[in-house]
Design a protein that fits this description.
- This protein has 35 helices and four strands.
- It has helices spanning about 20-35, 40, 45-65, 80-95, 100-125, 125-165, 190-210, 215-235, 240-255, 265-285, 300-320, 330-335, 355-390, 395-415, 425-445, 455-495, 500-510, 515-530, 535-555, 560-575, 580-590, 600-605, 610-625, 640, 645-660, 665-685, 685-695, 700-710, 720-725, 730-740, 745-760, 765-770, 785, 805-810, 820-845, and strands spanning about 70-75, 450, 775-780, 795-805.
- The strands form two sheets. The protein has a two-stranded antiparallel sheet with strand order 1-2. It has a two-stranded antiparallel sheet with strand order 3-4.
- About 40% of the residues are buried.
Length: about 850
């Protein structure tokens, strides 16, 4: 017994073979820390199988500790009771989840994480092992930083610099822009916020190792701190820098309490740290926005993104206040709770970009209470540990500071992102937790659960129960992984243009895991879009019918996603089932009202049923939310030409209704007048357009009107210069395209624009009648990641997009379409609701 009456933890001499399971676990952990794009690869075959196998290792390690060492070591300090409550809460949430299979998948990963914590806690029973654990973690952090910087420099920074230099001869002198998501440091995890979160956890540990280690390793760890801050700069994560700022403040407070250090040195160190952070912040164009961004900014972007996701998370939690909607439910239910005013921002997510919001939505009040309890426990025991070490002048105080600082900084990051499903981040948190528990046991010993296995038959029973649990989980996981493997084989066949193997493999995958909508979605899309040479019409029609059936199965498995509803509607259209298509499109527009093509697809299904008045109303709603669609060449096709005048009149009428009784100084009023002026201009009503644009601050509008009125305005816009100065047209068209696309101009497009201008008598004629056209289908970007499967290709929407390239590239500001405008979407919502009500009442009639 210790002097305070507590029992010490058992010290077991390790043999070279006893820690083989721990070494294997470390190997998998290191692999998924430095593996490029690991956050995405974990949802592809065979990587998903590899990390799922790794999840069994903590349990086996625990069993080895119980059977070989004849001991089971609890966490102590009341945490074991908290773990028991957490397991019960996870069970309750899983039992009540609407999507129980997904909840079991994520719940099993959470249980394995707890097993890893217990295994680490049992292993880390001495100061030597604690130092070894933190040193290994520090070395892994160094490897992460080096890999991160190397990949970013070689795959992102240098290619972008070369691209920008190639644009300089065209008059574009652009700098490296961290506001572009793709240019931030994603490596190796796969997303800049993940990189920042890991660095916020790692830099304080590297600092602690630097301060506590003698040369030459001191300089190695010190270099790691500097490189880590540089890496954090390249990640350009505002949440990461807020976390680092919290760490800096914490470090400053620690310095102020260290009276052993001269006051002048403390002040210089603190000011130097603040100055270094400030320089890095000001040098990054995106991070500078921290000082100018408004939380009420209505222009969209990441502030709006988080406002939307947190609003949806709050609504989801309110709908399931006790145990939440269940783990893994956010990507499946998010659009049901997404606010209508969100526009086209945050259409799809698989996490809510806020740990509290994620916990509240998926685990409800139980999860929130558990999170608060963990936070309060950490504060209470962290303060006690700190005081105890200060009182005894414990040299381990440096590690306590670094670990607590890391957790403080990461708590700030967690408010802006959810990252607990990232292996290296959750693993680092558990390593730090085990180290803090080890420090606590050294400074403030308590009686730990150290039950001798040979004397307690209950522990033997628990061990055998764990073995049974592992067998049961293995049996449950086997068909899931077999389905994943089969789908991967099917997609490999698809890449070789072989449809039959794709169909057979995905059909079997669906049979093994029918609760997974991904296989059915991919079958639906690929059966409908695959082109078989020399296929007869009957066979093609048969494939379309099969595609429709698979979409129905996908929507049944995941009924709350716009992609599924709109795809089902188009599958009904392709099979000539117009009445059945309308409800699917209706559902799609209710889930994401501002989605490009949503109301047009609804209008098309109504037009095919000879419901012209309702179709016109749907088309008008599409155009008012996406005004450029008015200029699409699709309206000149026979299917729409007859109804196009009615659509234009309905658009003008809708704008006029929206403008009624609106104050002149209101920003939405200015926007609506800008768009209405654009509609009049497109119709050739220049006087009406000028009346709407008279207060416009857009020079392009006045210049286009002036040219239409046979005037020659002063302009520096390359595309207008190309019209006004035909002798230099090639040069100006190239500059216009480079400016619009921020890339090298396509020679064929340059030639097409020149030819169209040469054949036109007026700029107006070129824009509206002779401009190049483009037809394509939009890709469902991120569908695989959001579905937690990336083996298959990104599907294409069935909705055919046809664009007037003069409008989309050069004159889009005449008919602006904001991605995010809560005022506009709130104003449109009553008109949408009226149409929905009419359609629902029509559908309800026999």
């Amino acid at each position: 017994m210790n002097s305070n009456g507590s029992a010490p933890l058992p010290t077991v001499k390790a043999s070279p073979t006893k820690d083989i399971l721990g070494a294997l676990g470390l190997g998998f952990y290191a692999l998924f820390t430095v593996l490029p794009d690991s956050s995405s690869l974990v949802v592809s075959w065979p990587w998903v199988f590899i990390w799922q196998v790794a999840l069994f290792l903590p349990w086996l390690w625990l069993l080895r500790q119980a059977w070989v060492q004849q001991r089971f070591v609890g966490l102590g300090y009341g945490l074991d009771y908290g773990v028991a409550i957490a397991v019960l809460g996870l069970g309750g949430s899983t039992l009540l989840a609407q999507f129980p299979q997904q909840a079991r998948w994520y719940g099993w990963a959470a249980l394995c994480a707890l097993a890893a914590l217990y295994a680490l806690n049992g292993w880390c029973h001495s100061s030597e092992r604690r130092l070894k654990l933190l040193t290994i973690q520090g070395g892994l952090s160094m490897a992460f930083i080096l890999v991160s910087l190397g990949l970013w420099l070689s795959q992102t920074y240098l290619p972008e610099v070369a691209r920008l230099q190639a644009l300089q001869p065209l008059g574009l002198n652009l700098g490296y822009d961290f506001s572009v998501l793709e240019l931030r440091n994603w490596a190796p995890i796969g997303h800049q916020n993940y990189v920042a979160g890991y660095l916020v956890l790692s830099v304080p540990l590297l600092g602690g190792l630097c301060l506590s280690t003698r040369s030459p390793w001191k300089w190695v760890w010190g270099a790691g701190v500097i490189l880590g801050l540089i890496d954090l700069y390249t990640a350009s994560s505002r949440g990461g820098w807020l976390g680092m700022l919290a760490i800096a403040v914490f470090g400053g407070l620690v310095l102020l309490t260290r009276r052993q250090i001269p006051l002048r040195l403390r002040m210089m160190t603190g000011l130097g740290g603040v100055a270094a952070l400030g320089i890095l912040l000001l040098a990054n164009n995106r991070l500078r926005s921290l000082f100018s961004a408004s939380p009420l900014d209505s222009t969209g972007g990441e502030t709006a993104f988080r406002l939307i996701t947190n609003t949806a998370g709050w609504a989801m939690g309110l709908a399931h206040p006790l145990f939440g909607a269940g783990l893994g439910s956010v990507p499946l239910q998010y659009q049901t709770y997404r606010p209508g005013w969100a526009g086209r921002e945050a259409e799809l997510v698989y996490q809510l970009h806020s740990t509290p919001a994620q916990i509240w939505s998926e685990l409800g009040g139980f999860g929130v209470c558990l999170g608060l309890a963990i936070t309060l426990w950490l504060i209470y025991w962290g303060v006690r540990l700190w005081r105890s070490q200060v009182r005894t002048a414990d040299p381990n105080l440096i590690f306590t500071w670094s670990l607590l600082a890391a957790m403080l900084g990461y708590s700030i990051v967690s408010l802006t992102d959810y990252q607990l499903d990232i292996v290296c981040i959750s693993g680092t948190l558990f390593v730090y937790s085990a180290a803090l528990l080890s420090l606590l046991r050294q400074s403030i010993p308590v009686h730990a659960i150290t039950t001798p296995l040979g004397k307690t038959t209950r522990l033997k029973g628990v061990s055998w129960a764990v073995v049974g649990l592992l067998l049961a989980v293995g049996i449950w996981l086997a068909p899931i992984h077999r389905a994943w493997q089969l789908s991967s084989l099917g997609f490999n066949a698809l890449s070789q243009k072989q449809l039959a193997p794709l169909r057979s493999n995905l059909e079997e995958a669906h049979r093994l895991a029918p609760w997974e909508p991904y296989y059915a979605y991919q079958l639906g899309w690929n059966l409908a879009s695959f082109n078989l040479p020399n296929e007869d019409r009957a066979s093609r029609q048969q494939r379309l019918l099969q595609s429709l059936e698979w979409f129905r199965k996908a929507v049944a498995a995941s009924p709350f996603q716009e992609a599924g509803a709109s795809s089902l509607g188009w599958a009904e259209l392709l099979n000539g089932q117009l009445p059945q298509a309308m409800p699917a499109f209706l559902k799609a527009t209710q889930l994401v009202p501002a989605k490009h093509g949503g109301f047009h697809s609804l209008g098309l299904s109504l037009l095919g049923q000879q419901k012209a008045e309702l179709a016109v109303a749907a088309f008008a709603l599409e155009i008012v939310r996406n005004p450029l669609w008015l200029t699409s060449p699709i309206w000149s096709t026979p299917q729409y030409a007859a109804i196009y005048p009615q659509v234009q009149a309905a658009v003008v009428n809708l704008y006029q209704q929206l403008l009624q009784n609106r104050p002149n100084q209101d920003p939405l009023t200015a926007y609506l007048r800008q768009c209405l002026g654009g509609v009049y201009w497109w119709q050739g009503q220049f006087a009406a357009a000028e009346a709407q644009w008279q207060t416009s601050e857009l020079p392009l509008a006045k210049q286009v009107l002036a040219i239409a009125q046979q005037k020659t305005p002063s302009t520096d816009l390359p595309i207008l210069k190309a019209w006004l100065e035909p002798q230099q047209r090639t040069e100006w068209v190239q500059k216009a395209l480079a400016q619009a696309t921020k890339s090298q101009p396509d020679p064929q497009l340059v030639e097409a624009i020149q030819a169209g201008m040469a054949q036109s008598k007026s700029l107006d004629q070129w824009i509206k009648q002779r401009a190049p056209l483009r037809q394509y289908q939009r890709e469902r970007a991120g569908f695989g990641v959001l579905s937690r499967h990336i083996d298959g290709p990104a599907p294409l929407d069935f909705f055919p997009v046809a664009e007037n390239m003069a409008m989309t590239l050069f004159f889009a500001d005449l008919l602006p379409s904001p991605s995010y405008s809560p005022d506009l979407d709130n104003a449109l919502q009553p008109f949408r609701a009226k149409l929905w009500a009419m359609l629902q009442s029509t559908a309800a009639k026999p």
